[in-house]
Amino acid sequence: MKSNISRIVDVNINRAVEGVRVMEELARFVLDDKAATLALKNIRTTLRAAANKLTRKGAHFEARKSLEDIGRKLYTKSEACRKNLLDIFVANAKRVQEALRVLEEFSKLSDPSFGKFFKDIRFGIYDIEKQIYYLLVRRLKMDFDLYLVTDPMVNHLKVVREAIAGGIKVIQLRDKNASKKQLLEWAKKIRKLTFKAEVIFIVNDYPDIAAAVDADGVHLGQEDIKRNSIDKTRKKLGKDKIIGVSTHNIGQALRAVQLGADYIAVGPIFATPTKPSAKPVGLKLLRKVLRQVKIPVVAIGGINSTNIYDVGKTGCMRVAVVRAVLKKKNMKKAVKDLSSYCR
Question: In terms of CB atoms within 10 Å, which of 153, 187, 299, 323 comes out highest?
Fold first, then answer.
């Protein structure tokens, strides 16, 4: 019987450590989250050490019977299916929690003090799971290259329909001249179109409108974040929504990161009639921001088919456009062409 218990401990220590490592890789390489990465790394180390304390050193290896394990060839359909990084994270978090519960119960047979030890780790995993889950949800919404911003020069709904047909992944509703009532009406209709097409929908300036239509997020200017803190905006929208911030210098970029923005827009990179009074910040600033900022960066301002390659050479993977699509007769084709330049 002791041998069987050692097998259970061995299997579940391995299961927990392997699952934690998957979570750690996502925190490290996808989210660049130093705190979560370190916490998960420490849990792995602690679990490995616990295996040797719980049983005589090496006993779990002696009890291991991998080739004879009846579970070796059991592979369910759910195990074979992973749609995205979030699926991978959730599956492995649950795997860790289940393994820790098993360890919590069976370790009591050898040393009752280990029950609380594994319980504490399990509850720690619950907290880390919650933290990383929402970060991943938001990061997956930023898996795009071309970002289209609407403008009153062309009917907003027409632009959205054409852009969706062209394969756009994210659309921002922006109209500085419209009333909030009119923006809300447009936002409701655009939300239906984007939801059906699985396109990310961002509302410019107004968190309340974004919340009212269940948009994927909101984009704020420098004056907006002075009026509404990012924390306050996130509470209004929900932890699964993304918050972008316009920045025009390195100080604003770093400040937006510190305040908790999910992405920043840097610009205008080039001169643009959309914002005639704004002085272009240029590619030099974009490169500087990319070197110092870990969250996603969107280049914006005067970008078109003739200069988009120059933007790409900086290493910027996300580009926002307005006139490069809206001024074209065939907006659908313009979206397709610009998206191909981004890749």
Answer: 299
Rounded Cα gap, residues 12 and 24, in angstroms: 18
Half-sphere exposure of 292 (CA within 13 A, CB side): 18
Residues, the chain: 343
In SS3 terms, 231-260 reads as HHHHHHHCCCCEEEEEECCHHHHHHHHHHC
CA angle 119, 123, 128 (to 5 degrees): 145
Q: What rounded mean pLDDT belongs to the chain? A: 90
Q: Where in the chain is the domain with CATH 1.20.1260?
A: 2-140
Over residues 200-236, the pLDDT tens digits come to: 999 999 999 999 999 999 999 998 887 778 999 999 9
Task: Give 273's Cβ-side CA count (13 Å radius).
Answer: 8
For the cut 80, the answer to whether the pLDDT of residue 308 exceeds it is yes
3-state secondary structure of 26: helix
Q: Give one DSSP letter per residue of 53-78, joined into a string.
A: HHSSTTHHHHH--GGG-TTTT---HH
Q: Please return the burial class of 240, using the count of CB atoms within 10 Å of its CB with bins 0-12, 13-18 and 19+.
A: middle
Q: Token pair for residue 250?
A: 């390195």
| Distance from chain centroid for Cα 226 | 25
C-alpha span between 96 and 245 (Å, rounded): 36
Report strand pairing: 263-266 vs 242-247. parallel
Answer whether 152's CB lies under 8 Å from 178's CB: yes
CATH number for the segment(s) 146-342: 3.20.20.70
Could you tell me the pTM of the whole model? 0.86
CATH number of 2-140: 1.20.1260
Q: What sections of the chain are H helices per DSSP?
A: 2-25, 34-54, 59-63, 77-80, 85-107, 113-140, 156-165, 180-197, 207-212, 222-227, 230-237, 250-259, 282-292, 308-313, 323-326, 331-342
